[in-house]
Amino acid sequence: MTSTVPALGTQTAEGSALQAVLLDMDGTLVDTEGFWWDAEVEVFARLGHTLDDSWRHVVVGGPMTRSAGFLIEATGADVTLAELTVLLNDGFEDRIGRALPLMPGAARLLAELSAHRIPTALVSASHRRIIDRVVTSLGPQNFALTIAGDEVERTKPFPDPYLLAAAGLGADPARCAVIEDTATGVAAAEAAGCHVVAVPSVAPISPAFRRTVVPSLEQVDLSFLRGLMTEKR
């Protein structure tokens, strides 16, 4: 499946400057950042290598090519990038097949955005095969568009995925609110010119211009997101 844009037929509420909401997946909507690390540890253990826990902050939130490439170089494992990508996706998919915990507040926020017909996109560095599995649990009706990391030439931290999502929804990036959990994702969203809500999952993220940091999605609702468009910060 490729990223597609069904006919929206929806508009934001009258008078609202918020045109769309763009959401990351792992660590933002689903509590799966730990799943990726667990899969990496398990795969490299089978290859005869032990991963240093400090590397977790290096690989979190990035594209598979960056994370896998770093781990191959750091360990010297005898495996190609293509082979490792398959092994990691298999390990992750096995884990989400057993359990897929949502982040606190995720289901409520998605339902609210859907009820108010806010154009919403899922923008992830994960591959399409993983996104399609996760979206089944999140509710495909909650997303007008999904962007996968293996479907863009440059994924996060480059702005391309968020620019593509905004264009697909017919929205101005400056009128989009992005919700992210990692510095890599935040960098991508800010480079695209979006307002960012950071909900740190693994490593701390500091507030900045057009960047609001909250401890949980439970602090985020539609009123909060609309308010970001009018704040002078």
UniProtKB/TrEMBL annotation:
Transmembrane segments: none annotated. InterPro entries: HAD-like_sf, HAD-SF_hydro_IA, HAD_sf, PGP-like_dom2. Gene3D superfamilies: HAD superfamily/HAD-like, Putative phosphatase, domain 2. It comes from the Bacteria. PANTHER family: 2-DEOXYGLUCOSE-6-PHOSPHATE PHOSPHATASE 2 (PTHR18901), PSEUDOURIDINE-5'-PHOSPHATASE (PTHR18901:SF38). NCBIfam families: HAD-SF-IA-v3. This is HAD family phosphatase.
